[in-house]
């Protein structure tokens, strides 16, 4: 088996620490028991310094031997094909997992990220608020009577949906007890704690190397 390499930035400011999307890939590898290493590209110059690997200048991206992937969702599905811990092998369970993985990206994150961006730019009552409310309310209905999104068990779809929903401003956005309990339940998993702690450690260690560090 070729060694998996997860690429992330070498440093980020405090705000995004613990949320940089390499955590999704680390988390998936931890759940699946897949060995991996983490390598970094410089935060400074990120707009242009790794466009050959991530055409939008972002992270994460993943190397698996000859397989090179960007987009956290694509990388997660690649990892899920390696381990039943992330996705069941029966056709119905696999299809449900794919469906909810895409839903996390294309029905939730496609709304939450632009909403969050307008919010942090100082426009909390922006035109996306109604859309966001509607999406979160629909998901609350789904989560009110199920523990997991797909296949009656933990899958990579839960990992991704919980990661999308755990952004603090989104969690604080209204009273949705089922969604709140869902995010708490999924992020209580030891694999998430290890993944997040490892990311935080990487960025903390990099503080000392920053220009102007004390
Ligand atoms: N759709 C992409 C989004 C990637 C993304 O937003 N990456 C952030 C870190 S979590 C990033 O690289 N930000 C730096 C930048 O955009 O300059 C994915 O899921 O991989």
Give me some keywords for this one:
single chain, 214 residues, alpha+beta, Glutaredoxin, Glutathione S-transferase Yfyf (Class Pi), Chain A, domain 2, 2 domains, four-stranded mixed sheet, 8 helices, binds glutathione
Structure notes:
With 214 residues, the protein is of the alpha+beta class. It contains eight helices and four strands, in the order βαβββααααααα. Strands 2-1-3-4 form a four-stranded mixed β-sheet, covered by helices on one side. The mean pLDDT is 95. Residues 20-21, 46, 57-59, 71-73 line the site of glutathione. Glutathione binds next to helix 2.
Q: What's this entry about, in short?
A:
It contains eight helices and four strands.
How is the topology of this model organized?
Blueprint: E1 4-9, H1 22-32, E2 36-41, E3 61-64, E4 67-70, H2 72-80, H3 91-120, H4 129-144, H5 156-165, H6 168-171, H7 177-187, H8 190-207
Parallel strand pairs: 1-2
Antiparallel strand pairs: 1-3, 3-4
Helix pairs in contact: 1-2, 1-8, 3-4, 3-5, 4-7, 5-7
The chain binds glutathione.
Glutathione (GSH) binds next to helix 2.
State the CATH architecture of the largest domain.
3-Layer(aba) Sandwich
Give the CATH H-level superfamily of the largest domain: Glutaredoxin
Strand content is: 5-15%
Largest sheet: 4 strands, mixed
Small molecules (ligands, ions, cofactors) in the structure: glutathione
Low-confidence stretches: none
Number of separate strands = 4
On the 0 to 100 scale, the average pLDDT is 95
Taken together, the total number of domains comes to 2
Helix segment tally = 8
- Helix-residue proportion: 40-55%
What is the CATH class of the largest domain? Alpha Beta
What does the radius of gyration come to?
Answer: 17 Å
- What is the fold-level CATH name, i.e. the topology of the largest domain? Glutaredoxin
């Amino acid at each position: 088996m070729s060694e998996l390499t997860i690429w992330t930035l070498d440093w980020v400011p405090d705000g995004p620490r613990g949320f940089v999307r390499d955590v999704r890939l680390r988390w998936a590898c931890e759940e699946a028991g897949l060995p991996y290493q983490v390598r970094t590209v410089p935060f400074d110059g990120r707009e242009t310094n790794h466009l050959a690997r991530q055409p939008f200048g972002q992270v994460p991206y993943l190397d698996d031997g000859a397989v090179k992937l960007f987009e956290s969702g694509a990388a997660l599905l690649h990892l899920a094909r390696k381990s039943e811990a992330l996705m069941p092998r029966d056709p119905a369970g696999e299809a449900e997992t794919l469906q909810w993985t895409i839903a996390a990206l294309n029905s939730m994150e496609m709304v939450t990220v632009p909403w969050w961006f307008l919010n942090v730019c100082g426009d909390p009552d922006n035109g996306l608020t109604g859309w966001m409310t509607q999406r979160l309310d629909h998901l609350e209905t789904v989560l009110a009577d199920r523990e997991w999104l797909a296949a009656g068990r933990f899958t990579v779809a839960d990992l991704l949906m919980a990661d999308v929903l755990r952004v603090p401003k989104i969690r604080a956005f209204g009273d949705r007890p089922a969604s709140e309990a869902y995010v708490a339940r999924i992020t209580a998993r030891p694999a998430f704690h290890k993944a997040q702690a490892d990311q935080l450690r990487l960025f903390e260690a990099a503080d000392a190397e920053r220009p102007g560090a004390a």
